[in-house]
Amino acid sequence: MFTGIVRERGRIASVDGGADGIRIDIEAPATAGGAAVGDSVSINGCCLTVIQVLDGHLRFDAVPETLSRSTLGALGEGSDVNLEPALRAGDALGGHYVQGHVDGIGSVASIQPDGEGARLRIEAPNDVLRYCVDKGSITVDGVSLTIAGLEAGAFAVALVPHTLAVTTLGSLEAGDPVNLEVDVLAKYVERLIRP
Fold first, then answer.
1. How far, in Å, CA of 23 to CA of 14, rounded?
2. Could you give the CA distance from residue 68 to residue 123 in angstroms, rounded to a whole number?
3. Inter-residue contact 58 to 50 (CB < 8 Å)
4. Could you tell me what percent of the chain has a pLDDT over 70?
5. Dihedral sign of CA atoms 123, 177, 87, 29 in order
6. How far apart are CA 127 and CA 84, in angstroms?
7. Of 119, 183, 175, 128, which is closest to residue 154 (Cα–Cα)?
């Protein structure tokens, strides 16, 4: 379980493998300093298990299921990623409950300056948009955000200067793919009221 509050911006040191699975090595000194083999870490919103910690680097395996449902397979050496270690008992819940289970891949439609921040518009699949509500929560590449607008086929979020500075969202461009996770509470409510 995560909160969508990015704790470190890591950098991909290497990616090995192919369609059958990849091994990702991420330079992440702050996260690695508190990590152990078997821990869960959110990488751009995908929950992966640490398989090795060495000299400020973390290594993970991503299997075909993960690669087919997320953008992780498109990452290459030098790519920056949003990192968050799993929530621990007693930690502050600054964002919202995030599972690290990607519900779909969206596409950046636009990112426009908005005061000192920015407004990010993302085109998303209907099976993601059905759970989106104005002022509700959504996770974009592992970042907990509040939906600032809804339209046919897309939603918008407002990004504050801090988010632009400490996450990868500030470097997004039109056409970039992003991992999306809807608020899990909406899915449970739907399941409970469905006949």
1. 8
2. 19
3. yes
4. 100
5. negative
6. 26
7. 128
pLDDT digit string, tens, across residues 160-170 = 999 999 999 99
List, for residues 123-178, the tens digit of each pLDDT value.
999 999 999 999 999 999 999 999 999 999 999 999 999 999 999 999 999 999 99
Amino acid at 34: G
Calculate mean pLDDT across residues 88-109: 92
Whether the Cβ atoms of residue 102 and residue 181 lie closer than 8 Å to each other? yes
Kindly state the DSSP code that residue 70 receives in the 8-state scheme: S
Compute how many other C-beta atoms are within 10 angstroms of the C-beta atom of residue 176: 17
- Cα 156 to chain centroid, rounded: 16
CB 131 within 8 A of CB 150: no
Say how many residues make up the chain.
195
